[in-house]
Amino acid sequence: MKNFLLAVLVSFSWLLQSQNNPKIIKGTVFIDSIPTQDVHIINKKLTIGAVSNENGSFEILTEEGNTLLISHLNLEYKEITVTQENINAKNIVIYVTSKTHMLDEVVLERKRSILEIDPDILANVPVVNAKTLKLPYTNSKPKDDKTVKIESGVSVNLVGLINALNGTNKKKKLLKKLQVEDQNLAKIRKHFTDSFFIKQLKIKEENINSFLESCISRGIINLYKNGKVLELTSVLIENSKHSPYLLENENIRLTQK
Fold first, then answer.
1. Are residues 86 and 172 in the same domain?
2. Are the C-beta atoms of 26 and 91 separated by less than 8 Å?
3. Rg of the chain, C-alpha, whole Å
4. Where a domain ends, among 66, 96, 126?
5. Is residue 83 within 8 Å of 16, Cβ to Cβ?
6. 65: left (phi over 0), alpha (psi -120 to 50) or beta
7. CB of 148 closer than 8 Å to CB of 156
8. Angle at 229 between CA 47 and CA 191, to 5 degrees
């Protein structure tokens, strides 16, 4: 009787161990019955991933109940739960849906120079200078003070003009950089969808943009632009673990403010 109980306990222990031991399974990704290449498959629990080849095939380490994140720039985001049948068969088949890209409307306008003068405004304006005002130094030679004279008679200091232009250019470059960052962050948010940030990363909806801004230093924009969605997803998952924008940290963050 003791030997029988011992055998049962050993068998039960082996069964539990085999169920919790991750195994490598093979899989194939299809879109409209066509094998799809370069699809990223990420095991959320084990934080590992794989990429499908030209035949749509991949291999990944997983166990029953694990969630696989399916991601690609041209495909709709999808999640798959690994079942015991998949583990037993050592195989999983994934069907995905292509994504429709909507391009933003672009309006091209000619930029006006800061030195451009509207001819309609100056059409009937009299020329005002030292000669027309009959000032005593009308015929004197001007000093070499590095000024440039416009046809209207107005003299502009060249050094001041260059400094003003440099300051304006710096502001324009900074503004353009911020606009490009905002556009790329919006694309990243649209690609993963708010559901991914709220349900998977536990980020509050109104804090998604702030969370993405906090990840800029980790190079998420370059990863997205270079199509490295697997690395991008891993960075987002890792940063979310200690983010002050988590739902559970919301009260702490408000108290610190």
1. no
2. yes
3. 32
4. 96
5. no
6. left
7. yes
8. 110
Sheet containing strand 48-51, strands side by side: 48-51, 40-43, 67-71, 78-81
* Sequence-ordered list of residues with C-beta below 8 angstroms from that of 123, at least 6 positions apart, any chain: none
Confidence of residue 257 (pLDDT cuts 50, 70, 90): very low
String of b and e for 57-89 (b: at least 16 CB within 10 Å)? ebebebbbebebbbbbeebebbebebeeebbee
Place of tokens 């095991």: 43
Residue 241 pLDDT level (bands cut at 50, 70, 90): confident
Query: Is residue 169 assigned to a domain?
Result: yes
Q: Which H or E run contains 78? A: strand 78-81
Domain assignment of residue 133, yes or no: no
Backbone angles phi and psi of 165, in degrees to 5: -65, -40
pLDDT digits (tens, 9 = 90+) for 101-123: 555 666 666 666 666 666 666 56
pLDDT for 105 equals 66
| Count of structural domains, the chain | 2
Kindly report the pTM of this predicted structure.
0.36
Render the burial of 178-213: b for 16+ CB within 10 Å, e for the rest: eeeeeebbeebbebbeeebbeebbebbeebbbebbe
Task: Name the residue range of residue 238's domain.
Answer: 162-256
Residue 112 placed within a domain: no
Binning the chain into helix, strand and coil, the percentages to the nearest 5 are 40, 20, 40
